[in-house]
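Re: that backbone. Tokens:
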């Protein structure tokens, strides 16, 4: 498989002195379903923010789909979609209008923006919410809207930062069906972070583990289980706990 995301020696320090990324080397292949795992505060969201140009890096290099995101902002914005961890939608606008506006922002005609909106309302089961103001949605429905907004322009790479937090079990099952379909049928590269390791185990194939701003593993999930637990019939959750325990000894 071709490389999609290539990161070398990437560092990021916040202005208060926190070194969130300490020299990240990471590869994600095109079309892969990849998950970045690690404890709270390890640097997952910071890495996503740097990759999606919401934050500037300090040193190092990275490219996505051969694009240098820092030099080709418009190109990268068309190439990627991001559903960030924060529920920052505080809009008085209706759900359906937000999706239509987003489509137009990405250059779709009104007709195309409307038909794409219908597809996404259908996919993320937002029809009961379509005429509600986005700021009034429940937490789980906001997460669904976030994901729908990230997909309006059919990105090649989709970044999902803890997407299923607050989703009810039915919404969660539907969500993974939609994302797997995207990955398998449209070959969208998925870059997921989650604390629900059963979801990562079930859906992703490749993973990296970040601890305190350093990548400690990058490979397949079954490879991780084999390396850590000498078996790939163990759950990712148990293997992860084993790794963390042995690491902190
Ligand atoms: N705006 C900020 N200013 C200063 N430090 C920050 C800022 N945002 C994050 N940090 C710090 O950077 C480190 C990495 O945070 P980050 O949010 O990337 O972790 P994370 O792996 O996404 O954690 P979580 O699983 O809780 O979402 C942490 O020590 C955090 O406190
Ligand atoms: Mg985070």
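Recovered sequence:
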């Amino acid at each position: 498989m071709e490389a999609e995301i290539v990161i070398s020696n990437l560092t990021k320090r916040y202005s208060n002195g926190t070194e969130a990324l300490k020299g990240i080397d990471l590869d994600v292949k095109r079309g892969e379903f990849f998950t970045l795992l690690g404890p709270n505060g390890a640097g997952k969201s910071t890495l996503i923010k740097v990759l999606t140009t919401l934050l500037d890096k300090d040193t190092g290099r990275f490219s996505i789909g051969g694009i240098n995101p820092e030099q080709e902002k418009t190109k990268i914005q068309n190439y990627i979609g991001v559903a960030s961890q924060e529920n920052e939608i505080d809009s008085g606008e209706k759900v359906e209008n937000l999706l239509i506006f987003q489509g137009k922002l990405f250059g779709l005609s009104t007709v195309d923006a409307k038909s794409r909106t219908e597809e996404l309302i259908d996919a993320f089961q937002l029809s009961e919410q379509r005429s509600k103001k986005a700021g009034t949605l429940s937490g789980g429905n906001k997460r669904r809207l976030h994901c729908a907004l990230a997909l309006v322009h059919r990105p090649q790479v989709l970044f999902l930062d803890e997407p299923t937090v607050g989703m009810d079990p039915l919404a969660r099952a539907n969500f993974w069906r939609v994302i797997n379909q995207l990955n398998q049928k449209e070959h969208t590269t998925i870059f997921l972070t989650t604390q629900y390791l059963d979801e990562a185990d079930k859906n992703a194939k490749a993973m990296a583990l970040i601890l305190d701003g350093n990548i400690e593993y990058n490979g397949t999930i079954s490879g991780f289980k084999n390396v850590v637990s000498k078996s790939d019939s163990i759950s990712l959750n148990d293997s992860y706990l084993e790794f963390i325990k042995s690491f902190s000894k």
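Residues 3-248 form a domain with the Rossmann fold fold (CATH 3.40.50.300). Strands lie at 3-13, 19-29, 33-37, 59-64, 80-83, 157-161, 189-193, 206-211, 214-220.
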